[in-house]
Structures are given as structure tokens and as C-alpha cells.
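Homework help board

Subject: predicted structure for assignment chain

Our instructor gave us this sequence and asked us to write out the predicted structure in C-alpha cell form, then describe one feature. I got the C-alpha cells but I'm not sure how to describe them. Can anyone check?
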Amino acid sequence: MKIKIGLLYGGKSAEHKVSMQTALAVTKAINYDKFEIHPIYITEEGEWIKGPQLSAPAENVEVLEYTSSTQALPTPEFNPTVFKAEEGKLDVIFPLLHGPNGEDGTVQGMLELLNLPYVGNGVLASAAGMDKVIMKNIFAQAGLSQVDYVSFVRSEWEKDQEMAYSQVEKDLGYPCFVKPANLGSSVGISKCSNHEELQVAFKEAFQFDRKIIVEQGVTAREVEIGVLGNDEAECSVPGEIVPKTDFYDYKAKYEDGNTGLIIPAEITEEQYKELKELAKKAYKALDCSGLVRADFFLTADGEFLINEVNTMPGFTPFSMFPLLWKHTGLEYPQLIERLVGLAIERHQEKQKIKYTF
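My C-alpha cell output:
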């Protein structure tokens, strides 16, 4: 019997297009001899639409952009029948959603209520991993070294903008990076070298979130590593990002591939061992499951500083995560199969919990 997978993608998020690229790539990589693929598309307006079962890879993104005339789902009144396939209940949901309303624990919470197995991190890890401020606070509590940072909410910035800018200049200095707290994929991120750029960056970041984080700039190499597992995690080979632009921005990531990826990264065996331990420590601190891509800075004096973890890394043709596992010996189709297996394993483990006494 084939495993019935509900492929959940799109989303009401600034990262909608990234999610579409990820979904396209997964349809091209998945093993159709083992899995039935049932697409569930969320439009940019938040409408859920079930597409027809896929029996072959989608040719392009447009094929996956269904309209309400296809089969609109009963939202927001969710119920288990939303995730029914023609021949029975879906076995696993594969959320390929990036950013808010998808990667932040909201969809994960819904799937928990429906008691459905799903790929990736749970509610807590997803929510904490999406909010960069909360994530960094947890990392600090876990004793992980990281760059200095400050955060602001829109209302306090609007009351006294110059005070916010002064705090950044006093506590961090230049260069610094301004980011929306609850967004990924480099959307809304700016590098600032002076007061004027800082003002523009705040306005840009607050377009995408009510809370932003400002991080101290650091001269370092950008090293990333993939993590797979539930309670027992394993790591891929390391990779290094070498941006050809000023920093690894949205365009370099998803549009023109204007960046260099070095896999495996040129680090020593001792550094690789340390990197794996730090990545697992971060994974455990957030109570992650399924997968993450852990991003670190490696300074000139050999210190690793954790930057962030991505709880739903992309699967686009330019994405680091599947490339890391490919170089580790796990090809694309096998990676997807492994993730589905981990989802089922975690779901079965949760069924052991007693809810009455």
C-alpha cells in the first residue's frame, strides 16, 4: 500500500513564492511508486484548495496554483474531513510552508488537534524557531554563544524612534543587521552601516512584522549543517555560504543563485565535531523533531556563534539543506522518505501518552 501524503504548500505569507518553489521541487523528487501525493494549496489570501492527486512531477509552479473552482476546502471551520483523500484518510501531512501561518506552529497546532502525523517540527519548536527573539533567548539560556542583539516592537519604536536608533548604536554599533522577528528567507532584512540606513531598515522590517531584531555585525564565515531525527538526532556534512553580494539576501537564495555553496565546508575534524555537538544542543534546546538547518558564524579565532535554526528549510534547487544531505549520502527521494518515516515515528510515540487518570 502506498503512503498517502497531503502536500501542504503556498500560504498567507510573504514567503508564499518560496513555498511554491519548494513544493515544485518536492513533486519532482518524491518516489511515486511509494507515495500517493494529494496537493493542498493555500492561496495568498488564505483560501485552502485541494488539487487532484498527482501521479507525476508538476511541470511548473503554475500547475500547483489551483483556483477555488477546483475544490475549495471548508475553512476556517477545520475538521478531519478536510484531509480526506478519495480512497481514505491521508497518512501524513507534509507542510512545505515558510514563514508565518505555516512554519510558526499555527498549522502544526491544527494538525495536532486533528491527531494527524505531519513532517517536521511540532508547535513549540516551530513557534520558537520562527520568532528570532524567543529563539535567541532560548539559545542564551542553553549556553550557546551568539552575536549581541536587541529587539523592538512597532509601538515602542513609533513612540520614540530616535531612542531606538540610539540604543542600537550604543549597544551594537555598525555594521548591524535589522530583521523582522517572525520571518525567514531574508525577507525584509537590511544591513546597516550608518544612521540613515538604520532608519530605512527599521521602516522596511516593520512592514513585515510588529517585532524586529537588530543583530551586531560580525566578520565571520557562514557555516550551516543539516539535522535529522526526533529524540536522537544526526547531522549532515557542513556547508559554507559564500555570498557574491553584500550578504546572503533573498535574491541570492531563491532567484539567481548568486552565491557560492561549498560542500563540505573546509573546516577541521575537530571543528566539525564541535559544530555537530552545538547543532544538536540547539536542536534539543528548542525540542525539535524531524529536521532543521542550523546556521552558524565561524569567526577568525575559530569560535562558532549560532545564528539561527530554520525549522522548515527550503527544498528549492538552490537550497542548502537537501544539498548537505546529498553530500552526506542521502539523495533527495531518500531524504523525503526519511522525513515521512520520522513523522510517523513521532506520531506513534505520542499515541502512548495517557490523557485520562
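Reply (TA_rk): Your C-alpha cells look well-formed. For the description, you could write something like this. The chain has twelve helices and 15 strands. That's the kind of observation they're looking for.
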